[in-house]
Write a structure and sequence with these properties.
Number of helices of chain A: 13
CATH topology of one domain in chain B: Rossmann fold
CATH architecture of one domain in chain B: 3-Layer(aba) Sandwich
Shape of chain A: elongated
CATH class of the largest domain in chain A: Alpha Beta
CATH superfamily of the largest domain in chain A: P-loop containing nucleotide triphosphate hydrolases
Order of helices and strands of chain A: HEHEHEHEHEHHEEEHEHHHHH
Helix content of chain A: 40-55%
Oligomer: heterodimer
Radius of gyration of chain A: 24 Å
Largest sheet of chain B: 5 strands, parallel
Structural class of chain A: alpha/beta
Largest sheet of chain A: 5 strands, parallel
Number of strands of chain B: 9
Chain lengths: 280, 391
């Protein structure tokens, strides 16, 4: 099994290599990067291009490591016991399998995505060390050891909100997705809008990368915002000329609301444009 | 094999462990990569470096260690002299030979080259004299000197991975660089700690079920307080005087801190802490808060962060009446020690570069008072500070 990129996802060489190393050595791959650089997308694309099923486990601040393994539904059992349901005698009826359990016991290897691992409690990654390393865990309620039939391909994404423990990092491969440069960005846009006019693309990227350079923006526009914006430009049938200007600093690009998602950013940007006009 | 590289990374202060090193070896053994230096670079990075702030250090260490390999000569040679010479000979056209004559002949040129090689200690780029790349010296690659010899340009101009680590694209993520607001936020976030405090008003389902089960099915409700951010911080900012250079940084720190904590109180002081502080700089002479009142008002679970350059005359810390603004009856050091007695978790953030600290007497004194808990305002320093505070 080797990941060679996919027609709908542009992966750089170093990213492909990191994915392949994780597949071959059967270790999790930890992916970090700016928001909107395709961290979550990566797992989806890898699963698709390798033809494997994908299991997604989205982490929230309240998620516990145990929930990924299994949950004991005590409330149903309590209710059933009051109703005299015969199922109540077997505790296994009330064990709900978590994502890791499903991944471990699947018929064939799967891709498992643990999304935004840094959202959870600081102890969360530590609680998964043995599970990810040995790919097995113990169910205390039924006294049963669950072992992986096939080691799943694990992707873990992080937004850098919390530092992950060293012991956890040692067990992973790591890749930091950089914000794409112009060439890569052109390739990415080409994947999403195959018929896009060259001239429009060039002007749009000019505007986009210049906007990213504006100092003091709270949220820099990312790839997903660029794609949304291009979709709007196409829908509104805006010509490349409308984006071009001799002195680009003095115009506000059309539909800029798709790129700047923050009121203060829009104000800041408009003020800068206004100042540039006055100084002209 | 390659153990030297491992040690090189260790020396560059990159936290690599033996387990990760073995993973890299396993990857090479299992044929994850083709035998090429680019691929090796990527594999080594993905298996050894687990934080993008270390990418830059890694690039530098990799570049240094594999500089020799890149030129297909011994990895030990700092400047592969023989290779340079050989390549130079190969590249010479009759016109270039004529140019050499204009510099005084081949022998003189080589003599000069050897002399400069001896002068030059490390890798070099730019400049007008040293041998390296992109300069105007008669020696080196990518140069502008019309009389120069092109040395090794063909070989290193192809898109090899060397370019990747030579570009040092990850320099921004190095944790020794200065902070932006976002970086400060990430660092401060470490301090965020959740605790349950206050009135019990949230249904504690787990305990309720447990108690109900123990109660043979009779409902036994249990409540617990809500979880919220429980870190309390007192921030003291030095204003005026020598801090003027650092005001912007202090402001950024303050704006970042404001959004991160539920309980944050800030006060200003000048140079050193004395018997009062103030909340608004404009009205610093009319609206003051007595330091003693602070200590009585805020509990000892508050964490103290002082921000200041700690650059002043030692008298301002050690002598009663040392303050440059008014006559203080007790020395600044007395007040600081008093604060530290009440609040065990206290640190001093210093915007001055850490290298300068040993040369300033007042910094040394304050460091001693703070038992070494003075940190520079770099990402790394802030991380260390927050790690201490959250312990």
């Amino acid at each position: 099994m080797r990941f060679k990129g996919s027609p709908t996802y542009v992966a750089t060489d170093d990213l492909k290599l990191a994915v392949n190393a994780a597949i071959t050595l059967q270790r999790p791959l930890l992916v970090k990067g700016e928001p909107g650089t395709g961290k979550t997308r990566l797992a989806i694309e890898v699963a698709e291009s390798l033809g494997l099923p994908l299991l997604e486990w989205h982490i929230k601040s309240t998620t516990k490591a145990l929930q990924g393994l299994y949950e004991y539904d005590a409330v149903s059992r309590l209710r059933d016991s009051q109703l005299g349901d015969p199922r109540v005698h077997d505790i296994a009826n009330y064990i709900v399998k978590g994502m890791l359990w499903q991944a471990f016991t699947a018929e064939r290897p799967v891709v498992l995505l643990i999304d935004e691992v840094d959202k959870a409690d600081i102890e969360f990654p530590n609680d998964l060390l043995r599970e990810l390393d040995r790919m097995e865990f113990y169910v205390y309620e039924t006294r049963e050891l669950v072992k992986a039939r096939h080691r799943p391909i694990v992707f873990i994404t992080s937004n850098n909100e919390k530092e992950l423990p060293d012991a956890f990092l040692r067990r992973c491969f790591f890749h930091y997705i950089r914000f794409p440069d112009k060439e890569t960005m052109e390739a990415i846009v080409a994947v999403h809008f195959p018929g896009l006019k060259k001239s429009l693309l060039r002007e749009a990227l000019e505007v986009f990368f210049e906007l990213r350079e504006v100092p003091g923006l709270k949220k820099k526009p990312s790839t997903s915002e660029l794609l949304d914006w291009l979709k709007l430009l196409l829908a509104e049938d805006i010509s490349p000329e409308a984006l071009r200007s001799k002195d680009r600093k003095t115009i506000i690009p059309p539909l800029h609301g798709a790129l700047l998602k923050n009121e203060q950013d829009v104000h800041l940007f408009e003020r800068l444009v206004f100042m540039a006009r006055q100084n002209r | 094999m390659l153990t030297g590289f491992f040690l090189k990374l260790k020396a560059a202060k990159i936290p690599v462990s033996i387990k990760e090193w073995l993973t890299l070896m396993e990857g090479m053994h299992k044929g994850v990569i083709e035998p090429s230096i680019d691929q090796f670079y990527y594999l080594a990075r993905t298996s050894l470096v687990k934080d993008e702030s270390n990418y830059d250090k890694f690039d530098r260490a990799f570049g240094e260690y594999f500089k020799g390999v890149e030129t297909l000569l011994g990895a030990e040679a700092d400047i592969p002299l023989e290779w340079l010479l050989k390549q130079a000979e190969l590249n010479l056209s009759p016109e270039e030979k004529a140019l050499i004559e204009s510099l005084g002949g081949w022998d003189k040129l080589m003599e000069e080259l050897r002399k400069r090689l001896a002068e030059q200690k490390g890798r070099h780029q730019g400049g007008s004299k040293m041998i390296g790349t992109a300069g105007t010296s008669p020696f080196g690659a990518y140069g502008y000197n019309p009389e120069g010899i092109r040395i090794g340009q063909e070989r290193s101009r192809n898109r090899s991975a060397v370019k990747v680590w030579d570009q040092r694209e990850y320099a921004n993520y190095d944790s020794d660089v200065e902070l932006g607001t976002r970086n400060i936020k990430v660092a401060l976030r470490r301090l965020r700690k959740f605790a349950r405090e206050g009135a019990p008003e949230e249904l504690d389902l787990d305990t309720t079920i447990d108690k109900t089960a123990r109660n043979a099915g009779w409902l036994d409700l249990h409540l617990r307080p809500e979880r919220h951010n429980a870190v309390k911080v007192l921030l003291f900012l030095d204003v005026g005087g020598s801090m003027d250079d650092h005001v912007k940084l202090a402001q950024e720190l303050f704006s970042a801190a404001k959004t991160e904590f539920k309980h944050l109180e800030y006060f200003y002081f000048h140079n050193c802490l004395y018997d009062f502080v103030w909340k608004e700089n404009r009205r610093r002479h009319s609206e003051r808060t007595r330091t003693l009142d602070l200590m009585h008002k805020y509990g000892h679970d508050y964490k103290l962060i002082f921000v200041g350059d700690a650059t002043m005359s030692p008298y301002e810390i050690l002598q009663p009446g040392g303050s440059i603004e008014y006559h203080n009856e007790e020395a600044g050091a007395v007040w600081l020690r008093r604060m530290l007695d009440v609040y065990p978790k206290a640190i001093w953030l210093n915007p001055e570069p850490e290298q300068l600290w040993p040369y300033r007497q007042s910094i040394a004194i304050l460091r001693e008072i703070f038992a070494g808990r003075m940190y520079p305002t770099t990402i790394d320093g802030l991380e260390r500070a927050m790690r201490y505070l959250s312990k």
